[in-house]
Here is the input.
Amino acid sequence: MIDYAQRHLRFGWWSLLLFASLGLTLEALHGFKVRAYVDTSNETRRLVWTLAHAHGIGLALVHIAFGLMLRVAPDTGAGSAPAISAALVAASVLLPGGFFLGGIAFYAGDPGVGIALVPVGAASLLYAVFTIARGTTSARRRP
Amino acid sequence: MTRDRAVFLGILAVSLAAGAWLAAARGRVVPERQVTGRPIQVADSGYVSSQTCQACHPSQYASWHRSYHRTMTQVATPDTVAARFDGVLESRAGKLWASVPREAALQSSLQSPTRSRVSGDTSEAEVWAPVVMTTGSHHQQIYWYETGNSRVLGQLPVIWLTADQKWIPRRAALMAPPSAHAMPETGAWNGVCVACHTTNGRPGFDTPFGSQPIVTQTADTNAAEFGIACESCHGPAAEHAERNRSPLRRYSLHFTGVADTTIVQPQRLDPIRGSQVCGQCHSFWEFSDAQAERRANSAGLPYRPGDDLAATRLIVQPTTNLESPRIRELLAVDPGFVRDIFWSDGMVRATGREYNGLIESPCFTRATDAKRTLTCFSCHTMHKTPDDGRSLDEWADDQLAANADGNRACESCHPNSTTHSHHRPDSPGSSCYNCHMPFTTYGLLKTIRSHQISSPSVQASLDTGRPNACNLCHLDQTLAWTAGVLKEWYATPTPALDDDDRNVAASLVWLLRGDAGQRAIVAQSMGWSAAQQASGTGWMTPYLALLQKDSYDAVRYIAARSVKTLPEFHRDQLPRGHPHLLIKSDGTFDAEIVNRLVRARDNRRVIYRE
Here is the structure.
């Protein structure tokens, strides 16, 4: 049987490390005034890479919170854990990944085609959050 | 009420109060349509303003935002005013005020000055008027005040020189003789400036501008946007913005590379139409007839980017249409109509008319291939490109393309420029620009490069009085010397020369005998480092000192500026025995020749329509 709590704690912390490193990289690009990042012509790249960093960090924390929730209140999402887990992992890959890919090559104010992954990731995240929320509501009603 | 709830409500109340205080501290913002007393910005008739363009074109917006096109017209605020607040301008209670001479106030029908200050003698009463608009920011800034008559603006009689950080009289900033009548400037912004210093400017005059005293006219002047903004060059963008709200359409255009037909891209137009986008303002033109003028000073100019500019106005081109009925008609009213803008061979001599120079250039007229035809975009770019390593400030100075700041601009069509020049490769004499675009155009108290590509010609100098490129750098040489060099290097026939052309440095002939325009050009050259290197500087100060007594303010100003670039003058360092420079072997000047040339000076009235 898969230990989802362990899986998400592991995924969350490694993911946090990855996106914190991305944050450090972006700060370095600012610090060294790398033109490919700070030039006004690269404003779209700056925006979507910042979004990749922010969403990656945020989702990593969600994974950690979900893992802790499964440890503290295992009944809360037990029934839907596989689906929630898959949706959260998909969101963590597609949302920041889509933003990051969208900033590699872009068209003036429009990000590159990788941005198409973002709405898919957002839908996965919404599904996971909704399922968790529904689970917490059901758990509370149980005697 | 529980204690927690009371604390929560307390925090909420404090937050709301703080927010309200901050909003009030930012000042009351009056919606533009409710502004009275000055022209307003109204984005309609298919225009949407640069704020809309910014969302999808952030890079282009950023470079435009740094450009002097944007700041050509601004609402006057402490942030947009370049001048010091030193008695001419004052900032009080969130408004800017300027002291307007009583005479100017009367002339401009200043009806309701909000404040007046009267000194002991009532005859010295000053009128203080609200300053509401500015023009320019790069070299000079002009200030406009409310007249109290509809949206008609009056102009402060002084302007701010950005580089010098000082005020000078407005009249002194123009190339005009002291005897010239002061131009009536009240209403000039509404009737003239609005056409090119805003985007889709509409004067909104009730009766034809200039047909009667300005005090009896009213103007509901407005523009889509102040300054030369995106839609000045790309055309009205409402349809473009609306249709491109769809990401499917945008990405379809990105992937296919198909041109978007809902917007004009000047560089995709043919060379003539593309350059006409710039030419709508950077040309010397006139209304085709009185009816067109009347329409324009009510509803604005009908030209839109991509149109044929010549279809709605008359581009003045002396080489082709000097004898046209319309030009004859205009010349009958104003004999200086052509002379004040062009040299006698039809080359433009006043700045801001670069399109007229372009369409007379051989690189334009003789081109057979659109891709190799000279256009404005051959050298200039309105948006700094990603491969351009310069800062936005550097780029904004002339908006030159990354590869156009040197010989590369010409070498794509004209290789081997180094051997062709007969000058050291790293010297100013090997610069294509210096020989083929010399500083023979005047405006804004300086000379700028001619935008009509030409080759140095002694014959042209003799025929028109226009200094040639060789003698603008080799200021110590005669026309005969130049003719000899051109004959040796390029087999150019030597024209007939008189004694002065053979024996006196050409620069001195123009400086002493030339008209005010020629004197200004030579004065500026004496401050040019390339000319100083080629000609030496020890002899220049006395001649520039002579020009500092010139009757033209502009000539005096340029001469004074050039003197400041020279080493301190010591009489004993004059190059002795230099007859071309009219310096005798004993170190004294040949006063006889100097006086003869000054007596023969061309004292014709010179007024440049800058």
